[in-house]
Structures are given as C-alpha cells and as structure tokens.
Amino acid sequence: QVQLVESGGGLVQAGGSLRLSCAASGSIFSFSAMAWYRQAPGRQRESVADQTRAGSTNYADSVKGRFTISRDNAKNTVYLQMNSLKPEDTAVYYCNARGPKCFPQCWGQGTQVTVSS
C-alpha cells in the first residue's frame, strides 16, 4: 500500500487561508481518485473534495467556492487550498486515495485545522 502523509494544518483566524498537502510514498498517477475528508469532534467523517485521475472535481456544498483540490503527479502530491476559512471548518483533515495500489482505499494520519473566530 502507498503511504499518505498530510501537512499544512494549523491555527488560523476566520477569513484566513491554509494549504494542505498530501504526499504519497509512490506514484499517484494510477489512483482513480484522490480526496480530502474531514472529521470534527463528535461528528462523522465527511467528504470535502475529490478529484479523479481525469481531473474532474467534486466539492461539498459547504466548501464550494472556497476550497480547491489539485494534484501534482510529478511530486506525487495532492493539495487542498482553503480560503475564507470559517470556524465550522475546524476539523482533522484526512487525505484519501483509491486505486490498484490503494485498494480499497488508503488514508493519511490526518492534520488538524483550527479556525478561530
């Protein structure tokens, strides 16, 4: 299995920005999709954004227009650019991959994002 390592989380004020990175230990080119999920205390893990190998993207309604998922195949890295952050975006953010080397799926260890009001 490919290992996924997230970074870029931290504490930011409402209205600020953060960029999360998810570095894979191997090539991400073969992954059918990569995604970001988040889990807030006391809540279920939810999908935030995903991108297929073909490049199509999907976003949760709560982050549309504020978050952008992208991938750099050469660096084996997926990013989540988060702008106009809100306190309700506070959660642990997880990277997810699906494909032959991550079947049924792989998860990173998570990175904490805290947005203060």
How is this structure best described in words?
Strand 5 (46-52) and strand 6 form a beta hairpin. It is built from no helices and eleven strands. It is mainly β and 117 residues long. 0% of the residues lie in helices and 56% in strands. The protein is globular and about 40 Å long. The strands form two sheets. Strands 2, 4, 5, 6, 9, 10 and 11 form a seven-stranded mixed sheet that branches.
Low-confidence parts lasting 5 or more residues at pLDDT below 50?
none
SSE series: EEEEEEEEEEE
- Quantity of strands, as a count: 11
Principal-axes shape call: globular
Kindly provide the radius of gyration, computed on alpha-carbon positions and rounded to a whole number of angstroms: 13 Å
Please identify the structural class as seen in this structure. Answer: mainly beta
The gist of it:
With 117 residues, the chain is mainly β. The protein is 0% helix and 56% strand.
Secondary-structure topology with pairs:
Blueprint: E1 4-7, E2 10-13, E3 18-24, E4 33-39, E5 46-52, E6 57-59, E7 67-72, E8 77-82, E9 91-99, E10 102-107, E11 111-116
Parallel strand pairs: 2-11
Antiparallel strand pairs: 1-3, 3-8, 4-5, 4-9, 5-6, 7-8, 9-10, 9-11
Describe this protein with a few key phrases.
11 strands; four-stranded antiparallel beta sheet; globular; 0% helix; single chain; mainly beta; 117 residues; seven-stranded mixed beta sheet
